[in-house]
Specification:
A hairpin with a 2-residue loop joins strand 3 and strand 4. By secondary structure, the chain is an alpha+beta fold. The protein contains three helices and six strands; from the N terminus they run ααββαββββ. The longest helix is centred in the N-terminal third of the chain and has 42 residues. The chain is about 40% helix and about 40% strand. It has a single domain, classed as Nuclear Transport Factor 2, Chain: A (Roll). This is SnoaL-like domain protein.
Length: about 150
């Protein structure tokens, strides 16, 4: 019995160690996706940001509406940039990678500047990314909430 438990424990340890490269790759995929998203947002580049979304992406900006499709996503973000939104951050709370799908829950922050006054916002975002046939990861669904400005 003890020998069987030791073998089972060794198998479990081996499985844990063997899974580490996959976990590291998952972290890299998610880190790269979030870094690219923040970079495009903080440059105010709606086209580059839109390219990170699937052609049929569905986005809900937490106001009871949905935006569907890459073109409307670009238009939405252009409106935010025109209103002075920049300095976006993403801090992942949890994430799960299952095959060609990643979903994450994260805290976000952003600053809106208008007439020299900066207003910080924050909230929580839920995002789903899928890996396309071209090997690129794109957002297919996203929704967020926002706390009242401080």
């Amino acid at each position: 019995m003890n020998k069987s438990l030791r073998q089972l424990g060794a198998c479990a340890l081996f499985a844990l160690v063997a899974s580490q490269p996959a976990l590291a790759q998952h972290d890299k995929v998610l880190d790269d996706a979030n870094t690219a998203w923040n970079a495009a947002f903080n440059k105010g580049d709606a086209r580059a940001l839109g390219a990170l979304y699937d052609e049929k992406a569905v986005v809900s900006p937490g106001n009871g509406t949905t935006i569907q499709g890459r073109a409307d996503v670009e238009k939405f973000y252009k409106g935010l940039f025109d209103a002075g939104f920049r300095d976006h951050t993403i801090d992942v709370v949890s994430a799960k990678h299952v095959g060609n799908l990643i979903y994450q829950t994260a805290n976000w922050t952003v600053v809106a500047e208008k007439d020299g006054k900066k207003t910080p916002y924050k909230g929580v975002v839920l995002k789903v990314l899928t890996k396309g046939t071209d090997g690129k990861w794109r957002t297919t669904a996203q929704t967020w909430n926002a706390a009242p400005p401080q």
